[in-house]
Write a structure and sequence with these properties.
- The protein is α/β, with parallel strands linked by helices.
- It is 46% helix and 17% strand.
- The strands form 2 sheets. A 6-stranded mixed β-sheet has the order 7-6-8-5-9-11.
- Helix 6 links the parallel strand 6 and strand 7.
- Helix 2 runs antiparallel to helix 10.
């Protein structure tokens, strides 16, 4: 006889059986995108734009988690984390690939190689830039795009008008043999430090100065602890957006196509704002009044070029003489 209790049991069992036949709601695919700078830099804004576009184009099938300001990994840790699959996407500065064994990327660190964003596009969008990205694949890394930051200025607590002004100064650099040679050519002592440690090192006098595009200098508040800066525009700082190769190639082709579309548009956005962001940062630092900015005269700039251009030949064997010649040809240099 069916009692009320038995009916309840049968109904409950039916509900359970029905639910078991329903397809499970798919969890979104999570992509962790880690970087070491502030959200309000060109790279930070580019990462946020990619998140917005990727989640839209995949209709929520992909969730991009952006971790700025070294929240997950510092400079020296992030590439290993990517290779191990602990994080899926990074945008490290181009100098970071030297320690990985792809030192050809240090071409971008050569002082006074590129003088404008137009010069830069001739390299990144041309054969030189694409061949460099291809070299990452043997390391388990897929290169997706180049993102600009900008051209670097020098800062310190003493004026830096001529190369002689660098003599004996401890200057922070990111890990790069080219940047080491650059500082040594100026008579400075290069000090490799993680980006997240630079403000404190400047504040406490562990280092005397550093080089950065204005947007990095401003968003990390370095202008608060640097009395002088010179608008040398001596070098370029840019990034490569990269992913774990096995992860990327294992994606559903439709998902990957939508992510590639999002990356293309995010790259156009990030690169379109880079110069303006740096110009705005420079104006904000000038308005703050804590740093005195010096613009090189033509004669002063000629001194800097004369002091730094020998680094090209000195580092030729490391980067590859043929690659440097290829870059010179793309830029119309002798």
């Amino acid at each position: 006889m069916l009692t009320r209790r038995n009916l309840a049991r049968i109904a409950g069992a039916a509900v359970i059986a029905f639910c078991a036949t329903l397809p499970a709601l798919a969890e979104p695919l999570v992509i962790k995108f880690s970087h070491v700078v502030a959200p309000d830099t060109p790279k930070g804004k580019g990462a946020d734009k990619f998140k917005e576009l990727a989640e839209s184009y995949t209709n929520g099938a992909v969730k991009i988690e952006v971790y700025p300001n070294s929240q997950l990994y510092k400079d020296k840790e992030e590439l290993e984390a990517l290779q191990l699959g602990a994080v899926q996407m990074l945008a490290p500065s181009l100098a970071k690939f030297g320690p990985l064994g792809v030192q050809q990327f240090e071409l971008f660190d050569l002082p006074y190689l590129m003088g404008s964003y137009d010069d830069l596009r001739k390299i990144t969008d041309g054969e030189v830039g694409q061949s460099l990205l291809a070299k990452l694949e043997d390391k388990g890394i897929k290169g997706l795009a180049y993102w600009d930051n900008g051209f670097k200025i020098m800062s310190a607590n003493s004026p830096l008008r001529t190369p002689d002004d660098f003599l004996g100064l401890k200057m922070r650099i990111q890990s790069s043999k080219i940047l080491e040679a650059e500082m040594q050519a100026l008579g400075a002592v290069p000090q490799v430090l993680a980006f997240s440690e630079v403000y404190q090192a400047l504040q406490t006098g562990v280092v005397d100065g550093t080089e950065n595009p204005p947007s990095n200098m401003y968003t990390q508040k370095m202008h608060e602890v640097q009395k002088h800066a010179t608008l040398s525009n001596h070098g370029y700082l840019g990034y490569a957006v990269i992913v774990n190769k096995a992860f990327w190639e294992g994606l559903d082709p439709e998902i990957r196509a939508n992510l590639e579309k999002a990356m293309k548009e995010a790259t156009e956005y990030a690169n379109s704002i880079a110069k303006q962001e740096n110009d705005n940062a420079l104006e904000a630092m000038k308005a703050a009044g804590t740093t005195e900015f010096h613009e090189l005269s033509e004669d002063e700039r000629a001194e800097w070029v004369e002091a730094l251009r020998p680094v090209h030949e000195e580092m030729s064997d490391r980067i590859g003489p043929d690659l440097i010649k290829q870059a010179y040809a793309a830029l119309g240099m002798e």
